[in-house]
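Narrative of activities, Objective 1.

The group set out to show that a structural description can be obtained from nothing but a protein's sequence at a throughput compatible with the screening campaign. Below is one input-output pair from the validation batch, recorded exactly as produced.
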Amino acid sequence: MYIFILTTAVIIRIFSNSLANVFQKKLAMNVCPPLMINALTYLILTIVCIPFFCFNSPISLNREFWINSTIVGILGALGNGFLVKALEKGDISVLGPINAYKAVVGLVFGIFLLKELPDITSLFGMLMIIAGSYFVLDTLEEKFSFALLKNKQIQYRFLALFFSAAEAIFIKKVILASSVFQAFVSWCMFGAVFSIILAKTSKIEFRKELLSFKNYPNMKILFYIAACIGLSQYATNFVFERMNVAYALSLFQLSSVVSVFFGYKIFKEKDIRKKLLGTLIMITGAVLIILYN
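Output recorded for this entry:
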């Protein structure tokens, strides 16, 4: 029963995260500023959490909880902000598989912050992720080369995965200091605060941009994003409580296959076979990271 529940949580996380990326891309393509989308998503989730906050408030928790929650809020706002900016113009079938590098970044952070030490199997898994990314990134105009670093969408995606991988480590710390639910509430609230600050510092005019959400389809998509992100994050917390962070991040890379499929079916993106081959190699590498213990 335990394995079934854990597997269900992983599946929910994989599909809800991929669907969120689809809706984020759709909304960003409708000329809605990515940082605005990010801030409103957190804000909607925070409003939904308020009634539950009254019954399960984390106010009485210790200093470590609040410090780590603040760090999670900052990293989450940056990570999700850069992700939506990457999705605005980048191919979801490319940006999704790149996320497999998160397992590598998570493993590195885990070594220093959680003392989760790898062995030769996980190091080989890292090499497979890099090898698989060759096939995915080689479908771009710049090919697999240093010229890729000039591609804004690739830059944003790597920044997003760096911040979100670091965020994962601190989410685990918050969960250890509280509970899955309290960590989720703090993630929503602190994420809302810092994503709004981030949007404000980017000189986004909230009143002006909110007018675009008078358009019912845009508002509907925004609520879909919030629902998918909420499900994804709660499932993530549930899995983090029960599993090593590096293992969990590796399992989550199965969403890459879903992203490639969505990119092909919804956005008519090309070179799908090559991207799928690279994705499968990257997932194999991620699975090897799971096996290092």
